[in-house]
């Protein structure tokens, strides 16, 4: 077999996203053939022995993507760190090593994906792909259209400016917000910077996949067709084409 980047190998073994695996390598928590691994190192599957947390890890042949309706109080992580809470991976009963795709902070709820597929995780989280995430937000006070306008412009945060792709009012103190990047607690920080406090935050869509009627705390495995059509390359293009048709023909039936 051909050599591949160590972080890609680890991601395909269900250790975490490629970016997270890079952090693990830099932290000295990965070993290759008994020696501490280095970032940028390549390994050959079936030839090199790769260990994480003292145990050998191997890529899983069967790729899995699971949708979870994460309750508040659960951590988007595989292992407990300093933050208190239950692990979202504990909600899923499957014989695979799965990890969360992206972030959904402990106090937030809604759609979160778990996978052992490093390629789909990279596509859904890397900024260059611009995959949309849609949120329903409840604020501690009524809001007007000017708040939506400000969210769609640059909001200055400690780690740089941020903006929403779209933002609209859906009720008194209730917003629908779409982001195309996923910095830590980004939407909460954007609203705090504009003088608002979030009472409830719920993610309802990732790319073309909607949370739908999945009950809180439950999960379901996605079909290969769903992964390809709703999460993979082309899902955003299809959404954009449908949105353009509706704009040109307001009477067109919504999908």
From TrEMBL:
It comes from candidate division WOR-3 bacterium. This is Pseudouridine synthase. Belongs to the pseudouridine synthase RsuA family. Coiled coil: none annotated. It comes from the Bacteria. Pfam families: PseudoU_synth_2 (PF00849), S4 (PF01479). Its EC number is 5.4.99.-. Residues 4-63 form the RNA-binding S4 domain. One of its GO terms (biological process) is enzyme-directed rRNA pseudouridine synthesis. It is an enzyme of class 5 (isomerase). Residues 229-255 are annotated as: Disordered. The keyword Repeat does not apply. The keyword DNA-binding does not apply. CDD domains: S4. Keywords: Isomerase, RNA-binding. One of its GO terms (molecular function) is rRNA pseudouridine synthase activity. The lineage of its organism: Bacteria, Bacteria division WOR-3.
